[in-house]
Amino acid sequence: MNVEHIWLYILLTTLGAALLRVGITGRFYSVGRGGARGLVATINSLPVKIVFIVLGLGIFAWLMVDLYYTANGTAQTATAQATFNIAGPTSPNVITCGGNVPSGSCPNGPNSLGQPAINSGNPYPFLQFGGTTDNIGIQFIASANQPARYSSWVFKWVNKISDDNVTLTDSNGSPTISLGTGFDTNGTYPSFANITANATYDNPKYQLTPPCTEIKRSFDAQTFLMWNAGLTNPPSIDIPLGWLTWGFSGDARLNSGTWSINGTPSKYATGFTSSSSYPGWTSGHFNGTSPACP
Amino acid sequence: MKTSLRRALTLIILTVYSTSSFGSTTAPFALTLEAEENPVNVGSEVKVDITLQNSSNRAIHVHLSLAEVEYTFEVRDGQNRIPPETEYARKAKGRGYFSNDQIFYLQPGESLPKDLLVLTRFYDMSRPGKYTVQVSRAVPKELGGGTVKSNTLTITVVEPTPEPAK
Questions:
Q1: Inter-chain contact A206–B105, Cβ cutoff 8 Å?
Q2: Shortest CB distance from A207 goes to which of B91, B98, B113?
């Protein structure tokens, strides 16, 4: 029922009721001259036909008006869901490796990750997962059977940080601070901006600044492989192909003015899970200025 | 005859060898600066893209990380003054940073993916006018040391054009 057209319904109802009365009783009016004379002799008389024609038209108009305006969304909202099969890539896979892999291959085999290390920096060194050409932290190498019809397809990479905590120690204490969780970004999408190659790397780093004397970092991430058909008009959207998880932890300690790794650092990477689930997040892991020592 | 030929060949080989090594004055890479949008409306972010290209004749390793720490950048307004720093920039001074970090093995002529630098995170560029920006990057010692500068880019910040009355 559309309340905006209630006047139309009242008019049609009143007219219909009056004509129905005439059709049933056979009288146009009940008093005065000719008031007692019936006009309807049989069911097929003209007044009865008029009544049913008018009533039919009224009901039809009512239905049309109601359906037309309601279906145009003035009174209702609707939710629709559609699944499109664009015949994207099949058999996606990502292998990970690290260490001495400067040329985009995995000479030491999959899962041969790099090592957390202390690397030089300006003006302060870094606690870093890999970070040098002979010690790449983690390399991702993607593969898939590509559909023939998309010649401009690209891969993209999205990092979701599930956990990134640093424990900063100086003479004032040892607080543990989260560097943020969620979408990993330097300020743009995707996480590794403008990188569309089938292989990419990551070597997360944290600068070792005074007056800290010890900095521990524990980092866990989920990396999604995305695919884009490369269409421009309209532009195609990124499609998830799957994900894997990886992480590392390390402890840097300052001794006699020199930073070094304390204890045994850890690292891991799981196998690739093929999935069409989109990465979702409600917060960001914004790379940038690190928290001050306590 | 044989001696002349041998000398000529030696000369050719020496010439090829000398051109295939880094010269002492040749930078191993070149920097190109482009504005993502120009002119820019007052109040909008001023973004520039930095492209690093291997301009040498051999493959080099280059890191791609946070542009704000990999590059030194200088912004000047129309009066050649440095615009006021933002609170973010003031707080970042003397502090360390964390980021992801990628290492690329660039063949001669190849470029890094464009690196985004948001200038308005560091400088108050809210006054309409022309601003110039130039970035530079230190050359690692193993590539000869020194600094490489980009082109100087002029960005115009303008008052937004009012929408025509309906």
A1: no
A2: B98
Interface touch A205/B101, C-beta < 8 Å: yes
Chain B: residue whose CA lies nearest to A166: B98
A66-76 mean pLDDT: 55
C-beta atoms of B114 and A132 within 8 A: no
Using a CB–CB cutoff of 8 Å, tell me whether B8 touches chain A. Answer: no
Angle between helices A46-71 and A6-25 (to 10 degrees): 160
Judged by a CB distance cut-off of 8 A, whether residue B108 touches chain A is no
Strand order across the B115-118 sheet: B29-35, B47-54, B115-118
- On the CB side of B25, how many CA atoms lie within 13 Å of its CA? 0
- Does pTM surpass 0.80? no
B161: which 2 tokens?
Answer: 């054009």
The encoded tokens of residue B148 equal 């490489």
Distance CA A12, CA A54 (A): 9
Rg of chain A on CA atoms, in Å? 37
B1 touches chain A (CB under 8 A): no
Pick the CATH number of B27-158 from 3.30.450.40, 2.60.40.2970, 3.20.20.140, 2.40.30.10: 2.60.40.2970
Give the model confidence (pLDDT) of A73-109 as tens digits.
455 566 777 665 567 899 999 999 998 876 667 777 7
Mind listing the pLDDT tens digit of every residue in chain B (166 residues)?
Answer: 455 656 655 545 444 444 444 444 589 999 999 999 999 999 999 999 999 999 999 999 898 888 988 899 999 999 999 999 999 999 888 789 999 998 888 999 999 988 999 999 999 999 999 999 999 999 988 888 899 999 999 999 999 877 777 6
Alpha-carbon span B121 to B132, nearest angstrom: 16
